[in-house]
């Protein structure tokens, strides 16, 4: 997943305003309490950030990848 795809999914799943608000306000406990913006700036893979955000916000798998997206492969460890 590229960062551009991350932002597209964020807007699709959460809505433009709420998604952008989440990206700067929501602390991700699984990522050392960083926000989405901080985690991406720190080099955390966008897919990892996306999954952590969705898990924390209880987004079901059926909605997680939007209408026209397939789940991208997980990054290599």
Q: Could you name the key traits of this structure?
A:
single chain, 77 residues
Could you walk me through the main structural features you see in this protein, from its secondary elements to its overall organization?
56% of the residues lie in helices and 0% in strands. With 77 residues, it is an all-alpha fold. The chain has one domain.
What is the secondary structure topology, with strand pairs?
Blueprint: H1 3-14, H2 16-25, H3 36-41, H4 46-56, H5 61-64
Helix pairs in contact: 1-2
> What is the count of helical runs?
5
Task: List segments where confidence is low: pLDDT < 50 over at least 5 consecutive residues.
Answer: none
Shape: globular
Question: For the residues shown, what is the average pLDDT?
Answer: 89
Rounded radius of gyration (Å): 11 Å
User: In percent terms, what proportion of residues is strand?
Assistant: under 5%
Number of strands: 0
Question: Helix and strand succession?
Answer: HHHHH
How many separate domains make up the residues? 1
Assign the structural class, choosing from mainly alpha, mainly beta, alpha/beta, alpha+beta, or little secondary structure.
mainly alpha
| Alpha-carbon distance between the two ends | 15 Å
Largest sheet: none
